Amino acid sequence: MPQDRRHFQQLSYSISEEVNKGTVVGNIAKDLNLNVQELETRDLRVVSSYSKKYFDVNLRTGNLFVDERIDREELCPNTAQCSLRIQAVLSSPMNVHRIEVSVSDMNDNSPEFIERSYSLNISESMSPGERYLLPIAVDADIGSNSVKTYKLSQNEYFSLDVHSGGEHGVSAELVLQKALDREKQPVINLILTAVDGGKPARSGTLQINVNVIDANDNTPSFSKSLYKVRVRENTARGTVIIKLNATDLDDGMNSKILYSFIKRGNIDPSNMFDLNAETGEITVKGTLDYEETPAYEVRVQAMDQGISPRSTHAKLLIEIIDVNDNAPEISVTSLMTPVKEDAELGTIVALVTVSDKDGGNNGVTHCKVVGSVPFKLKSNYKNDYSLVVDGPLDRENTSLYNVTITATDEGSPPLSSIRVITVHVSDVNDNAPRFMKPLINVFVKENSPVGSVIYTIHAFDPDLDRNAKLTYTLVNGSPRDIPISSVLNINSETGEIISLQSFNYEELKSFQFKVQAYRLWCSSAQQQRDCQRFNCG
Predict the structure, then answer these.
(1) Same domain for 441 and 360?
(2) How crowded is the C-beta side of 388, counted as CA atoms within 13 Å?
(3) What is the pTM of this model?
(4) Burial environment of residue 237 by CB neighbours within 10 A (0 to 12, 13 to 18, 19 or more)
(5) Helix, strand or coil for residue 444?
(6) What is the pLDDT of residues 454-479, one digit of tens each?
(7) Are 141 and 230 in contact (CB under 8 A)?
(8) Cis peptide before 309 (omega within 30 of 0)
(9) Which domain holds residue 16?
């Protein structure tokens, strides 16, 4: 069998939308160089993928004609180019020819507004020259058949400014030419007409209702330009401290006032206070602290609720009244301790500073030393004091003092605080050594061995450390002028008295000598010794 050959060729035609059925588009037989007799024998058919059969062919003439209504807006909405693609199929042999039919637009749609009416609220206070953008009309047609201009019905208040947007279509603005007067005409009815560029032109209309709003021509007014209020710092949260009052001579919403704080920089009064927008009442919100912020300078606003709202401002000064809620604080900035027991009167022991965060009398303090101690406070400057020696010190009697200082403010009731300063007293060599008895009798057996300890003597010194370190020596004291160093010796550190010979009762029944106790170092010769009689028998 001979192999089937297929031949492809494309034909192009153009036609306007909405043409009558049977309108000839073109002659396929002629354009494909086919014999008309072949059309029927080779079963010429027109096929497409569309749901409608827009075209068919006359097999006797070869004419391609319109078989269904063609609506360009239905086929190609919102596009500039529109075409139908079909195929002409021949059998024996099989040939397929592509056919593209370009559909041109005709002015079969009128401009339409989405809504039938449009309302504008314009205050009577608006000045001539104000502009108001109007809704645009849509037209399913394209090109010259789309919307080209707008027209406005005759009136004495408004004109129309039409803008050609090029690719973006045409828009219109209502321009106020004359000041409105609500009392003369509260509503102005206008007709906006959209006209396309078709021939003949088609149009659509929109009802425009201009509602003239009463002018908000009165500004609210506060009863005072400056409000002052004093609030105690311990005022409970939620307490109303003041009520603002503003009035407006207008009516309705133009006279309805809302109050608000005006934030300036980083200062936001709403952190500490609440303002009721409708009543103007201001209440405490946060914790007030005079020591942190003694006063708040707040700007408040009263604004009416008109279409074009007006506002006024006032100043509010909130003074915080100090409450005695801080006790004085006592600080020891310098402590010179220990203090020598021979310190002179007025010797500085410590530097003391008293502070109170409160203000006024609540911050005025008085400071003193409590109890009977040899110290006092000396005022230097305002709240600076010196703790000084005010009496004799004796380490041997008292080596440590806990000096209690109290500071009291002048608040009502007053608050006070206490600080205890520990003062150590250091030793001074102000005590001479002392023996337990002024006269001591020692009995020694005769013929006792040489080198025997006949007695150990002790002296005491209430001083400390090297001030109490003693050395013992023997001093001649016998009326017979017996050199004491020939019969006795003494251990300078322990006080042990040692015999240097064996005593004979028949030759020597008794003798006297002195023992001297002295410090290793002394501040005066008077303190260097304390002699004792020492009887030996």
Answers:
(1) no
(2) 13
(3) 0.46
(4) exposed
(5) coil
(6) 888 877 777 666 766 778 888 876 55
(7) no
(8) no
(9) 8-104
